[in-house]
Design goal:
The protein has three helices and three strands. The chain is α/β, with parallel strands linked by helices and 86 residues long. α1 packs parallel to α2 and α2 runs parallel beside α3.
Length: 86
Amino acid sequence: MLTSITDLNVSECTLLTDRGLGGIATRCEKLRSFLGTGLPALTAQGFRDFACEPVARQPRGENLRVLDFSFVSTLDDAGLDILCRC
């Protein structure tokens, strides 16, 4: 399930946690566009799990062309570094 999704918008899903973001990374391998604006519950662990999914520890993001984490106040320099490395 969800393996065919290429575009996903979870903006303003304020209850989305790091675990939920990791679940998206695990299942949505073919994401080309991810909109995640206004997600206040995320931490550096969530960004780590998004970039390298938490189950098989496989890198994700090779197909991403659009990534929007605007208005995510917890995204700092360290989080950006995590997202840019994978």
